[in-house]
Amino acid sequence: MQTIHLSAPSLVDAEALLAFELANRAFFETHINARPAHYYSLDGVRAAIAQAQQEAAADQAYQHLVRDEAGTLVGRVNLSRVRRAHYHSAELGYRIAQSACGQGYASAAVRLALARAFGELQLLRVEAIARPGNIGSLRVLAHNGFRLFGRSSRSFQLHGEWHDLEHYERHAED
């Protein structure tokens, strides 16, 4: 099990976050759609950090940087689309540097994000989606107690090709 810590992004993280995103851009874009080109600049990352801070202050989303024991940025884990009234839920997302994949960072980061979601944030349900062929992501979800509750057909387009998605959930009492 990897020892990591999560922190909310701040402007002092801008250069490290830009370096992380640039170093992993091609890898990430094999799994998810590309960010807008203007994101990949210091001003773009600073604007994204400011937006993340505003969303956290408004209880809409919580972004976290994942750092290893040495303080190296190895990933991100987010709780987005926070819905309070009648739902008390959020959506989970994560990305780990290509060089850090397969080392337990994603599972550890999700475990810590869930602890925050169900503890401090008092959410009752966290949802996640994954493509059926994304074995690494499916393992992360399984290791963290997520259960499959549905599948949507041809619901995600990546590089002009449509993909099915599997929908997972985890409840606070699980």
From TrEMBL:
<dbReference type="InterPro" id="IPR016181">
    <property type="entry name" value="Acyl_CoA_acyltransferase"/>
</dbReference>
<keyword id="KW-0808">Transferase</keyword>
<protein>
    <submittedName>
        <fullName>Ribosomal-protein-alanine N-acetyltransferase</fullName>
    </submittedName>
</protein>
<dbReference type="GO" id="GO:0008999">
    <property type="term" value="F:protein-N-terminal-alanine acetyltransferase activity"/>
</dbReference>
<keyword id="KW-0012">Acyltransferase</keyword>
<dbReference type="InterPro" id="IPR000182">
    <property type="entry name" value="GNAT_dom"/>
</dbReference>
<dbReference type="InterPro" id="IPR051531">
    <property type="entry name" value="N-acetyltransferase"/>
</dbReference>
<dbReference type="Pfam" id="PF13302">
    <property type="entry name" value="Acetyltransf_3"/>
</dbReference>
<dbReference type="GO" id="GO:0005737">
    <property type="term" value="C:cytoplasm"/>
</dbReference>
<feature type="domain" description="N-acetyltransferase">
    <location>
        <begin position="4"/>
        <end position="166"/>
    </location>
</feature>
<comment type="similarity">
    <text>Belongs to the acetyltransferase family. RimJ subfamily.</text>
</comment>
